[in-house]
Amino acid sequence: MKGISECVSKLIRPSGKRRSDETSLPCRRFSLAEIKTATNNFDDNLFIGEWNYRKVYKGFIDDPTISVAIKCVNTKTMPGSDWLRNEILLLCQLHHPNLLRLIGYCIEDKLQEFLVYEFMVNGNLGNHLYGTNHHEPLPWKQRLKICIGVARGLHYLHTGVKHTIIHRNVKMQKILLGEKLEPKLADFGLSKKGPPSLSKALIRLESRVVGTLAYLDPEYCMSGELTDKSDVYSFGAVLLEVLCARKAYGKKSEAEEPIHLIRWAQSCKREGAINEIIDPYLMGKITPECFKVYIDIATTCVRRGAKHRPNMGEVQAGLEHALEIQESADAAIKDVDPTGDYNYPIDEYICNDSPDDTSSMEMGWNSFREESFESTEELSLDNAVPSGQI
């Protein structure tokens, strides 16, 4: 752990309470004693869940009214120094309202390392879409606002810092929601620092491809060449999940066959049956004009060829436009009938197919056949136990 400490020594401050002259310092180093105090010596009542050999506890640092999430990495069962170093070095320097804030870390224990984050009380986005934990279905405009927030965070990573940061593992479980359902993108352990933001150069990876298969950019998966458009592809899968309230790969009930969501959406679009993928709860609640803009964004994001996908700035602008359309249409209905419900014509939920949309099932990507997903909802290179938190 000495290497990690040396790498971030210029970015952290020592343990102890915050002093007035330390408010501008980005990251804090905690002692093991502080971590134990924060979690009441790892009290089971404060245990949130376990994710990929990493237990997460709710805790309290300094102020007992302010909650934090403390992630414990067991280095005996999962050596995590590279992951931990990446997470600390990036999050200590990245500052955006739609990125999860790293408060500090602790590396005193030889068997465990700890990261301290802001606490996101509403867990991850998937919990609110898949019918788990008894959450009420999210309204359409709320879903749009969440997607816009994540798009802003990704746009910042790609163009708002000196060197492009590619997340490499964008998916539902990495989108955490705050008290007012404000979204924050989490987990930068697999992220890759790329070329200067204004450069269009590719990153040629020397290591194995990482990520979750149902969200993986097929070009990156097959060539090992990583660009910002790989995040765009993964985010396109998230956009489809948000619209459908279905997992990127899985089934709604035991009676169903597992569905690969991107392939299903592309097939429905080609066949003129795109309205079949919409979450039943949303039927009649999306204005057709908004739907057309949204589905066009989502399906262009998941085109096989990276050069045919939009960049995150274009995705963000498109989603903001979709929200404006929806808000204007809803306001017009309220002007006519303030007590009325939205009931937009579902037969107008249509869109036109474009030639490139079919390409994601062509060429070598066909080598990832249906059996690649056999007997599992999600074939992942970083399998996780859902925890509702980080």
UniProtKB/TrEMBL annotation:
Keyword Repressor: no
Single GO MF descriptor: protein serine/threonine kinase activity
Organism: Quercus rubra (Northern red oak)
Keywords from the UniProt entry: ATP-binding, Glycoprotein, Kinase, Membrane, Nucleotide-binding, Receptor, Serine/threonine-protein kinase, Signal, Transferase, Transmembrane, Transmembrane helix
EC class: transferase
A GO term from the CC aspect: plasma membrane
Major location category of this protein: membrane
Keyword Kinase: yes
Matches recorded under InterPro entries: ANXUR1/2-like, Kinase-like_dom_sf, Prot_kinase_dom, Ser-Thr/Tyr_kinase_cat_dom
EC numbers on record: 2.7.11.1
Catalytic activity of the protein: L-threonyl-[protein] + ATP = O-phospho-L-threonyl-[protein] + ADP + H(+); L-seryl-[protein] + ATP = O-phospho-L-seryl-[protein] + ADP + H(+)
Pfam family, one: PK_Tyr_Ser-Thr
Domain Protein kinase span(s) in chain numbering: 42-324
Record lineage: Eukaryota, Viridiplantae, Streptophyta, Embryophyta, Tracheophyta
Its membrane topology: Single-pass type I membrane protein
UniProt xrefs under PANTHER family: OS07G0166700 PROTEIN (PTHR27003), PROTEIN KINASE DOMAIN-CONTAINING PROTEIN (PTHR27003:SF451)
Protein name: non-specific serine/threonine protein kinase
Subcellular localization(s) per the UniProt record: Membrane
